[in-house]
């Protein structure tokens, strides 16, 4: 799954001052912003006064010299002064000369200031702009890329059962989690309502998801509901190191950091699962890697596992394969296809976060760009809507005639990738499949084409075909690589083909609250279900729970539901308290 990052060639940072160069003084920053500091303002006033003192006598002397040339005959003593021949020309010449003197002095003074401070400050400002566009939590571009596996770290309570980048970032990570909590009302309500009952008391949840501020709110909610948790990351680029530090400081055994290698990735999962003194009985997975690792290395653990909760289309696909082959040992809950995940997280989250990820990494302008979105599921629908809204010309590729027809009815041109690839500015994959963009497509792309993936797995772009001796990889900035062909053509690859939004930006906390609450309820349901309710198969969350999750979020919008009368409920043949739609209903 994970692949080692290659960083060859130059980078944007090569153009900047080294990191240990001194920061610009406050006056320098003000000067660059066009707002002089107090000392500088005083100096400027004195300088202006000096210039006036120097230039004014010259101007007066010129005017006196011009006046001496006037003849007495040109004046009439009894009447008003007659026009003086050549006076206007002389005054104009004097003013021009004075202006040149002032401009010359100002230019020399400006060059002095620029030489002292401005050039250094401006150079640093330009170079920093490429990295400062990242949030500090997400990019961690200032940190070294060495693995912390051999690093001895302790929390303030002396705990050592974790492996993260830097435990000293815990305070900052805690602030990020607190901010996310404000936008995740359902989990806060769930903690308050069920916290006293502890419905997950005795649950030992091993998790493998993105480790972000939003996921941290979920993990700590599970702990508040009675669970013990051990966690690793499902993506080598999405971990927010400060958040991981805050989780470790709070007592959660977390093994993850941003920029893991392939070996690090599986090592972290193994540390979560293979602890001698701790055996899980619940699995919360995102992508299926954790489940795969347990099947491969620790199959005996499934004797104690009560259920699996899977969030992604990739992981769900693997579960259905296991079920079909009669190899699924425990019940599994398919969260990805629940209404609250499909219609909210997949659609609205991707609709907003794709633009954020592309802007932070490329600074691209979307207006007029030719974009191909591969796949028109809920993720594809969100991506297309966002790109179209900013003026991009959007094409869609699809294998499913129903999704293709939806794309046509929404105003998008449905085409084959091979038909349009030569003039495309940007390719976005979101199919959940493999090798959607192959080497034959990459070879035909025009110079500067941006290639990225909004699906969970990095299999959608054929990266293996790009790792050849004929092609040069140039690492330009965090999560941005240029792949250079022998003729000089280059394409821009983002996040090495991994999930764009969580690798290159952040995602809206509110919509993740919907998914996280669904995951929490799925864990509660599987853990507390009586024996025999769920067999060794893959299940969808009951419709009643989907509706409950949605209802918890309505108060944020001050929304008020209409209630059915008894007569209306009888007419429809449903309970007035729900569920309001049959399981086969497609929202």
TrEMBL record:
Ranges for domain S-adenosyl-L-homocysteine hydrolase NAD binding: 346-507
Residue spans of biased composition, Basic and acidic residues class: 22-32, 46-56, 146-155
Domain of life, source organism: Eukaryota
Cofactor(s) essential for the protein: NAD(+)
Record gene name: AHCYL2
Keyword NAD (UniProt): yes
NCBIfam families: ahcY, PRK05476.2-3
Keyword annotations of the record: NAD, One-carbon metabolism
Region spans: Disordered: 1-157
InterPro entries, sorted: Adenosylhomocyst_ase-like_sf, Adenosylhomocysteinase-like, Ado_hCys_hydrolase_NAD-bd, NAD(P)-bd_dom_sf, S-Ado-L-homoCys_hydrolase_CS
Similarity-based family: Belongs to the adenosylhomocysteinase family.
Compositional bias ranges of the Basic residues kind: 113-122
Biological classification of the source: Eukaryota, Metazoa, Chordata, Craniata, Vertebrata
Compositionally biased spans, kind Low complexity: 123-140
Cellular-component GO terms for this entry: cytosol
Species per Swiss-Prot/TrEMBL record: Amphiprion ocellaris
Name of the featured protein: S-adenosyl-L-homocysteine hydrolase NAD binding domain-containing protein
GO biological process, one term: one-carbon metabolic process
